[in-house]
Amino acid sequence: MGKNITQKIIAAHLLSGKMKPGNEIGLRIDQTLTQDATGTMAWLQFEAIGVPRVKTELSVSYVDHNTMQQGFRNPDDHQFLRTVAAKYGAVYSPPGTGICHQLHLENFAKPGATLIGSDSHTPTAGGVGSLSMGAGGLSVALAMAGEPYYITMPKVVKVQLEGELTGWATAKDIILHLLGMLTVKGGVGKVFEYAGPGVATLSVPERATITNMGAELGATGSLFPSDAVTKKFLAAMGRPEDYVALKADPSAAYDEVIVIDLSKLEPMAAQPHMPDRAATIKSLAGMKVDQSAIGSCTNSSYSDLKTVAQMLAGKRIDPSTDLLIAPGSKQVVKMLAAENLIEPLLDAGARMLECACGPCIGIGGSPTSGGVSARTFNRNFEGRSGTQDAKVYLVSPQTAAMAALTGHFTDPATWGTPPAKVSMPKKVPSIRQLFIFPPEVGSKIEVRRGPNIVALQRFEKAPEAVSGKVALKVGDDITTDHILPGGSQVMSLRSNIPAISEHVFINVDKDFVPRIKQMGGGVIVGGENYGQGSSREHAALAPRHLGVKAVIVKSLARIHRANLVNFGILPLLFVDKDDYDKLAQGSEIAIPVAKMKPGKPVEAVVDQKAKIKLTNDLTAKELDIILAGGLLNAVGGSGH
Ligand code: MIC
Ligand code: SF4
Description:
The chain has 640 residues and is an alpha/beta fold. It has 3 domains: 5-264, Aconitase, domain 3 (2-Layer Sandwich), CATH 3.30.499.10; 268-413, 2-Layer Sandwich (Aconitase, domain 3); 466-634, Aconitase, domain 4 (Alpha-Beta Barrel). The strands form 6 sheets. The protein has a 7-stranded mixed barrel. Strands 5-4-3-6-7 form a 5-stranded parallel sheet, with helices on one face. α2 (36-49) crosses α3 (73-88), α6 runs parallel beside α7 and α10 crosses α12 (342-348). The longest helix is centred in the N-terminal third of the chain and has 16 residues, at 73-88. The structure holds alpha-methylisocitric acid (MIC) and iron/sulfur cluster (SF4). Iron/sulfur cluster binds at residues 65, 99, 119, 121, 296-297, 357, 360-361, 377-378.
C-alpha cells in the first residue's frame, strides 16, 4: 500500500518503534527551534545534559516573545540566549527580527524535514511540508543533544479541500471552520494532512495560517504537500535548493477523511473564550469592536499585511477603535516598505508594533475593561490578552481591518469587492545578515548569566505511595495560560522557577499557592483536555516545584502530558469519568505508586474510605522517567 506524507517523513526518520497508530515511536530530528520564553530553560537543560555542541542539522534560538526589556530580567535572558547559542552552535535571532514561526518558514523550514520547537505553534512549518511539532523545552534540549524525539504514532486525517475560496473568505476561515467542526480536542493524537484540488489554490502563507492553528485542534502536526507553490515560495525566499517535491501516494490510506468545500466558506470568528467557538461574521454584525489587532504567527505575513494596507489605503479607522499591527518579520516590513505600503497603514491610524508576539501573549496592547478585540491571532483564552474580562474574537486580517474601519463587525455582504489576491514577488529582500550564525568552535565563549538566570533544580525520586490532598479542582479545557499566565511580568521569570511558581493558577484561584504550600504539596483534579494550549513546560515545572505529585483528569493535551512526564508528575486518568465528582478540593487521596504498571488501573483511596480506579496511558519508559523523578534524572544530566 502507498504512503501518505506523514508516513513518508516518519519512515525516513524512524529510529525506534512500529508505525502503528498508538505505538511509541522515536524520531530523528533534523531541526529545532526555541524561543526566549521557553528557551532559557531549554538551554539550561541542554547545558546540564553536557553535550559540547548541538547535533542537529540546524538549531535556531529566536527571541520574539518577551522583547519588552522592562528591567534587567528580560535583557539578561536575551544575553544568556545569545551567548549560549554561540557557544553550542545554534543560530541566534535577536529581538525584533520577527516571530519564530514566521522567520522559520521564510528562512529555514524544509519540506520533508523533521522539526521540533519549544513552542506549540511549531507546526506552522507544515505549510512547506515539514513534519514539525511543538514540544516541551527539555524534549527540545534532548533533540539538540542528538537524542530521538518520542511521540505516539499519530493517526493521519486527510482533509480534502474541494473548490476555491470566494469573496472575503480566507485561509483563517478554513481553520476556524475546521475548529468549529472538530473542537479544541478533536485533533489529539492526529496529524492533519491537506489534499485535493483546493491545495494548489492556496499560497504558502495561507497554508501556514492553517497549519499554525492545527495546534488549536490539539493535533500533533499539520502538513501540506510540497508542490509547485512551495517551489515558487522557496525560490522567492532565496533558497530554491531546499525544495523537494512531496506528496501522498495515490493509494495512500488514511485513518479519517474530512471534506471541505472552500467555495462554501464565509468570514468567521472564534468567539470568546475558545478557538473552537466558531460563528459567522454575519451573525455578529452590529457588535461594537473596541480594538483590532493584526499580527501573530498566524496572520502576519506580507500577503496578510499587504491586503490590509490595500483595504485601509486612503481611509481612516473609526475614532473609537484602536488598531495594532505587528508584522511577522523584518522581511515583511521591508517588502511592505518597498511597495510604499507602510504609509497607508500609518495614515489610516494604525499603530505599528515591533516584529514580535506582543499582544498575542499579553505583552502590551491589552484591550479596555470588558472591551471587544478582533484579533488575527490563534488563541482567545480568557485573560490571555492581559485584560481578564476582555472579549477576544479570532478573525482574519480582512475582518479585523473592516472592524477597525467601521468600529463594528459588519455583514461581509456590505464590504464591496475584496482586493486582488496577493502573490509573492519572484524575489524578496533577504534579512539573512540579521541572524547571528555560530562560530565553528564555541568552547572558549563565555555564557553570560545575569542574576535572573537561576540554576536548574533537581527533583527527588517518586515515593512508593502518593498521599496528599486535592489542592485544586478545575473543570474542562484548562489551558496552560490558566496554569501559568503570560504577560511581560510573569514571562520575565521563566528562567527562575522559584519566582515564577508564585504565579501558578493565580488567575483561577489566588489562594492556590499559599494553600498548596501549607498542605506541603498535593494533587490537582481536572476535566477533559487538561493542559491544552502552549508548550510551556513551566506549567509542569512550577507546579512540581510547589509539590504537585499527580494530576488526575478525564483527558490530557499532548504536549502538557509529555511535560508532566518530563518533570516527574504522574498524569492519571479516571477509569470512570463520573468519579471526578467524588473528589473535591481538600479531599485526601492515597495512590499506590509502587503498584503502577503501564496502562493498568490502580485503586486509590479517597478520604480513607471510598475507592476509585485511576489508570494511565504511560509507556514503560515514561513510567520509569516519572519514578526517577523526571527526565533529567533519568538521562543523568549533570546540573549546573
Ligand atoms: C503561546 O502562544 O501560548 C506561547 C506563548 O507561544 C507558548 C510558548 C510559551 O509559553 O512560551 C506556546 O504556544 O507554546
Ligand atoms: Fe507568539 Fe502568539 Fe505565536 Fe505564541 S501564538 S508564538 S505568543 S505569536
